[in-house]
Design brief:
It is built from three helices and no strands. By secondary structure, the protein is mainly α.
Length: 112
Amino acid sequence: MSFVLSVLASKLTHRAVSKRKILPLHWHLKNQTMLDRLPSDTFHRSFIISLMGCCYAFLLVYLLNLYTEQQLEVSKFIKLNMVYSILLAAGACVLSVYRALGAAYRNKRLNR
């Protein structure tokens, strides 16, 4: 899910920047962030973000096991799954949009 959302968010952001509906971020060499170190290609960036979502899922299962929640009621499981999915989707979209805005600025400077 985070892979698909990341691809969609990146493509929509690139389209909005190219149509000048939104402005790209202005990156400076002084403030290189870890987010800027994500791959510039949309497919590879989305894959890395989806791996991040898988790591969060393993962490969630580990923490549930740590607190001895071996069996959840169906209603609690559905609520937990919904909250996890919403937070993962929001995080993947924010990361993708932010990185795509930075890449758009860099591409704009290179094309000059």
